[in-house]
Write a structure and sequence with these properties.
Order of helices and strands: EEEHHEHHEEHHEE
Distance between the termini: 47 Å
Number of helices: 6
Number of strands: 8
Structural class: alpha+beta
Helix content: 25-40%
Shape: globular
Radius of gyration: 20 Å
Largest sheet: 3 strands, antiparallel
């Protein structure tokens, strides 16, 4: 279903797509819920920024580039994020095709999140941002306050560290 809300006085048009979910609850009754999903911008750069925007998405992606991670692992890697926000960010990235959620049929159930091919396409972008952040810290004489960027190599098993010797940009 597709709805458009037009605020004529403000000259704004907001485009929504409705996603219908059917859930079964403990009483075995089916409940249907509509979840509005905002339409992504048409301008590609704006679309890209919208998909990865937020304080935590690039950081979460940075960690899942190295391989599948459980929710508890991600929470330990990013201790400042609340579990609610972590789950919310992972769901949004899953909806946009950046991460895949795999549920293993075990007791208790095990869930892992990994970067999709589409998500891995952001690896050079995040690496460039990481390198720019290092240069920015150096320009402000704050290089000693940041860590090196660790990037998952595509075909090797050990992470590679981008250090001063490897920076060419």
């Amino acid at each position: 279903m597709h709805l458009t809300s037009d605020w004529r006085g403000a000259g704004l048009a907001i485009d929504y797509q409705i996603k219908i979910h059917t859930l079964s609850c403990h009483t075995h009754q089916e409940v249907t819920m509509a979840e509005p999903m905002k339409r992504l911008p048409e301008l590609p750069v704006e679309r890209a920024l919208k998909v990865i925007s937020g304080r935590w998405k690039p950081i979460i992606l940075y960690y899942v580039f190295s391989g599948p991670k459980r929710l508890s692992e991600l929470k330990r890697m990013v201790p400042a994020i609340s579990q609610k926000v972590l789950i919310q960010q992972l769901r949004e990235m899953e909806e946009h095709g950046l991460v895949a959620r795999q549920v293993f049929a075990e007791v208790p159930a095990r869930v892992e999140y990994s970067a999709t091919e589409l998500g891995l396409g952001l690896e050079p972008v995040l690496l460039a941002l990481c390198q720019w952040g290092q240069r920015h810290a150096e320009a402000r004489n704050e290089a000693g306050e940041i860590t090196d960027c660790i990037v998952r190599p595509r075909r090797a098993t050990a992470p590679r560290v981008i250090s001063d010797a490897h920076r060419t940009l």
